[in-house]
Design a protein that fits this description.
By secondary structure, the chain is of the alpha/beta class. It has one domain: P-loop containing nucleotide triphosphate hydrolases (Rossmann fold), CATH 3.40.50.300. It has 9 helices and 10 strands. Strands 6-7-8-3-9-10 form a 6-stranded mixed beta sheet, with helices on both faces. β7, α7 and β8 form a beta-alpha-beta unit. The radius of gyration is 21 Å and the shape is globular. Keywords: ATP-binding, Nucleotide-binding, Transport.
């Protein structure tokens, strides 16, 4: 792909291996004792890829393809077994647990399928939650102003005192989007962000993510739905822990064709 913007994420020969126990037991009448065998799972098998500032990327693949493992690594929720992960100017794979937590809270915004809101908290408190993880202390007037601006952006500025059980699924996901932006992160990671939503609400959420990308935010999402992935500008397909295809989405190909620009 012909992209000249700054590389903000680089994975170089990243591998992730899990060793899992497997119980091998005899039948009911067997005298053989249970034996635990180690099963090695190669979730990622040498992934190398660059993500550029301002990109909108969808990662696709069947269950077991490695897409969720890759998102977990990008979100600093897990560590690679080997290889290099550069976020901005930081070699994430070499950071301590505390440093990893700081990177996660300051530079990455998360949007999950299940929203992950705290039920006892108001909309305001949920939006501000990443600041609590940072140990930022007192909520300043600037934070209050930014919270209101984000709530207004997602259409919830009149529901700041509501709790999640007073909101629809779509409204809860809007809170999650606002929460992901409170720290002005490098990247936003969306894991099946529309998986629990109806078609109309899914479209509204995807339009919102598109506007964020138009404003310069880097978005990386995991999805198994083609119609959701087509909102992205670049689609990466995975199988058996490897990237098998990486290129512009159909709408970007169509746009390139309309403008008379070919693509590789």
């Amino acid at each position: 792909m012909n992209i000249t913007t700054k590389v903000i994420v680089r994975l170089a020969d990243v591998r992730k291996t899990y060793v899992m126990g497997h119980a091998n037991e005899g039948g009911f009448f067997s005298r053989r004792k249970s034996v635990t065998q180690a099963v090695t799972v190669h979730a990622l098998t040498g992934v190398s890829v660059d993500f550029h500032q301002g990109e909108y990327i969808a990662i696709m693949g069947a269950s077991g393809s490695g897409k969720s493992t890759m998102l977990n690594l990008l979100g600093c929720l897990d560590r690679p077994t080997s290889g290099q992960y550069i976020l901005g100017d930081k070699d994430v794979a070499q950071l301590s647990d505390d440093e990893l937590s700081e990177v996660r809270s300051r530079y990455i915004g998360f949007i999950f399928q299940s929203y992950n809101l705290i039920q006892q908290y108001t909309v305001t408190e949920n939006i501000q939650l990443p600041l609590t993880y940072q140990g930022s202390g007192e909520i300043t007037e600037e934070v209050q102003r930014r919270t209101y601006e984000l709530a207004r952006m997602v259409g919830l500025h009149e529901r700041l005192d509501h709790r999640p059980n007073q909101l629809s699924g779509g409204q809860q996901q809007r809170v999650a989007i606002a929460r992901s932006l409170i720290n002005d992160p490098y990247i936003i990671l969306a894991d099946e962000a529309t998986g629990n939503l109806d078609t109309k609400t899914s479209h509204e959420i995807m339009e919102m993510l598109g506007k964020l990308n138009d404003a310069g935010k880097t978005i990386i999402m995991v999805t198994h739905e083609d119609d959701i992935a087509e909102h992205a500008k670049r689609i990466i397909r995975m199988r058996d822990g490897q990237i098998i295809d990486d290129g512009p989405s159909p709408r970007m190909q169509a746009l390139a064709g309309t403008n008379g620009v070919g693509h590789a």
